[in-house]
Every structure is written in C-alpha cells, then in structure tokens.
Amino acid sequence: MKIDWWDKRCIVCVRQRDTGQEGRQTTRGHVIPESIGGRLWSPFLCKDCNSKMGTLEDKLLGDVSVIGVVEQLLPELPPKVGLNIHSRAGYFRDDEQHGRLYAKPRRDDGGLELSTMDEKTRRDEDVRAEVRKKLRAASVADDQIKAKLAEYDAASPGQEFEIVPGERVRKPISVAGQAFSRTWDEPIVPAVVPLGIAYLFLACCIREEIYEARFDAVREVLLQTIGGAADAASKWTIDWLRTPDVPVAALHGLAFEEVGGEATVRVVIFRWLVWRVHFPMLEPPMKRTHYSRYLETGDEDANLGHIVRA
Ligand SMILES: [Zn+2]
C-alpha cells in the first residue's frame, strides 16, 4: 500500500529531496522492511537515509527471535521472505576433534553450509586441486605428487596438511551427516528498530505534521543511531510487550493509538514481537488508526484516514 507524499523534504533528515545531489533522490521508504514482507511504503525518504535505515533492517532480520519465528512459519510465508531470513540463522556443533564448527543455511535452498570462525569453507576438491598446483609449481616429481595427494586424501577432516615446507592448508570438514544446533547468542533487536518503524508509521498517520519541530528529538535519535552511534533509542520510552504464550502468525501490524492518555504506536512483527513506542509530544488520537498485512494471502487491511485528536 502506497501512502502519497507531496512534501519534498525527507522525513528523517528534513533535507530537500531530488535536488540533483547524490544521495538526495527520493526512494521508497518501507515502514516494515520489505524483506520480511512489509508492503506499506511512501516516497518520503531520501536515498541516504533509506540506505542507513537499512542497517536497522539488518538488525531486525538477524535477530534470533525473528529467525526462530520464521522457522515456525516457513510453510505460510512467501518463499523469498522465508529463505531471506532463514539464511541469516547460525548453527554450531561442538566437535571433540575440531572444536566449535559453525554452519549457515544457504540463501538459495536453505541447506546448511559449514563455516569456521575465520574462513569460508572450501570444497575438498578445490583444496586438493590447490595442493596439486602448488606441488607442480614447486617442481615436485610426478610420482611424489601422487604420493602426496594420497596422503592428503587420507588426512582427516579439519587436519592441517603441509604441502611443501611452510605451505599449509586445512582439509575441509564435510557437513554431511553432522547435526547442528541453533546458535542463540545473537543480539536481541535494539530499541532503534521499533522506534524507526513507529516513526515512519506515525508519518503515514499524521502526514505533514511530522516535519514539526517537536519531532526533532525523534529524528535526532534516529540520525545518531543510524549514523553509527550507540543505541541512543534505548533511552526512548518503548514498552516491550512480547509474551511467550501468544502464538506466532504470518502477519505484521501497526497501530497509532492512545494508551494511558498518551499517543503511542504499536509495532507488531509476526504477531509475536510487540513494542509500544510512546510519543509524548503528540496529542493522542480519538480513534485508533491501524494497518495489518497478512503474509500468506498478501492482503492489507488499513484504516489510515483522517486523524481526529483529543
Ligand atoms: Zn534523509
């Protein structure tokens, strides 16, 4: 769903868009990232801000809770959304001989691909070809190359192998048949993620009013954080409402509503990750304004009409 936007200022940095300067081009600003199935957007961000907001998107998509939810919902999600997030999951296995081995799902088919901490895993045949090439380059006799390759073949996975003095390779470890368990040590979504989503949704609700000076504080926090500073948004009033007994579902929701006399935006991802972001500089709306997107059917349900405030 597109929200029309006539003002030519970016809603995050408030600079004029489309001035011909690099980075100021108008882009589609998705309220909930498109990569997790968000469809509500408006042409209200400059290219610079939109690409920086992408770092928030990465934090959301890489979060263990999001990845865990997506795995439960895979059959109901559009394949692209499922694979996109599933491929960010991390798995490990502690192996007596090799220490901790890591695996990541492949982006194309979701199958596990082994990786170690510091190097991308190579295929055994590629490493073997490298061994042969280096032996040839060192003018080793053919029968000795044959013997050396036989030695390589007999080496156990993960073992260091000396090709010629000073030249070593590691024999690749095959992931086949190994059981990996999930890595649960990734960070939980930082506060700037729901703040960013809530701010963009608020703009969809109150339109041009978003440029008023009273929202400078939100913009400042967003600009600081997406500019690489520490999570300044953690000081913002954001309630974390996730409850373990709510079942996950293939839907996202947003609502601009009044809670305890205060204007808030509720951000709901996969029905299960729920934040309530407070905007104390704003009068609360008389009537709740909402938007939902059902990922399985692609349906959008919204009431983003004229806002009447107290
Ligand atoms: Zn901008």
Commentary on this structure:
By secondary structure, this protein is α+β, with helices and mostly antiparallel strands. Among the domains are: 26-63 and 187-303, no CATH class; 124-170, no CATH class. 28% of the residues lie in helices and 24% in strands. It contains seven helices and 14 strands. It has helices spanning 47-61, 64-73, 79-86, 124-137, 142-154, 192-206, 216-226, and strands at residues 26-30, 41-46, 91-95, 99-105, 112-115, 160-164, 167-170, 181-182, 238-240, 251-259, 262-269, 273-278, 289-294, 300-303. The strands form four sheets. Strands 9-12-11-10-13-14 form a six-stranded antiparallel beta sheet, covered by helices on one side. A hairpin with a 2-residue loop joins strand 10 (251-259) and strand 11. The longest helix has 15 residues, at 47-61. The two termini are 27 Å apart. The mean pLDDT is 86. Residues 10, 12-13, 15, 45-46, 48-49 line the site of zinc ion.
